[in-house]
Amino acid sequence: QVQLVESGGGLVQPGGSLRLSCVYSRSMFNNNIVGWYRQAPGKQRELVARITGGGDTDYADFVKGRFTISRDDAKNTAYLQMNSLKPEDTAVYYCNYAVNRFDSGFWGQGTQVTVSS
């Protein structure tokens, strides 16, 4: 069992920035994957970005060049730096910790991001 707690969401104007944090209760190892997902009203949950224990990263096309995923192993924390935010980025953002790429993983409770003027 892995507990995850997200924070950092809020209301931001278009073009603004936010940094989300996800604290997880277990250290990451090479095969582990921490990912950020989002779910907008009426839509399915979708992958935003993920990072492996080995440091490899992967981004959805719609955030490439705007969002950056990173982690701090000393703090068991993953971050999602979101720049140039757009109204269509409005969603609940969830953190997921997977033991490996076959694992559905554990989920946090989510944090709301609203991009609006």
Any overview of this molecule?
With 117 residues, the protein is mainly beta. 0% of the residues lie in helices and 50% in strands. It contains no helices and eleven strands. The strands form two sheets. Strands 2, 4, 5, 6, 9, 10 and 11 form a seven-stranded mixed sheet that branches. Strand 4 and strand 5 form a beta hairpin. The chain is globular, with a radius of gyration of 13 Å. The termini are far apart.
The biggest beta sheet reads: 7 strands, mixed
Beta strands, count: 11
What portion of residues is helical?
Answer: under 10%
Tell me the span between the first and last alpha carbons. 40 Å
Q: Strand content of the residues, in percent?
A: over 45%
Give, in order, the helices and strands: EEEEEEEEEEE
Envelope shape:
globular
Q: In terms of per-residue confidence, which ranges show pLDDT below 50 for 5 or more consecutive residues?
A: none
Rg calc: 13 Å
Please work out how many helical segments DSSP would assign.
Answer: 0
Q: Mean pLDDT, rounded to whole units?
A: 95
Class based on secondary structure composition and strand pairing: mainly beta
Would you summarize the structure shown here?
The chain has 117 residues and is mostly beta strands.
Which terms summarize this structure?
117 residues; mainly beta; 7-stranded mixed β-sheet; 4-stranded antiparallel β-sheet; 11 strands; globular
List the helices and strands and how they pair.
Elements lengths: L3 E4 L2 E3 L5 E7 L8 E7 L6 E7 L4 E3 L7 E6 L4 E6 L8 E8 L7 E2 L3 E5 L2
Parallel strand pairs: 2-11
Antiparallel strand pairs: 1-3, 3-8, 4-5, 4-9, 5-6, 7-8, 9-10, 9-11
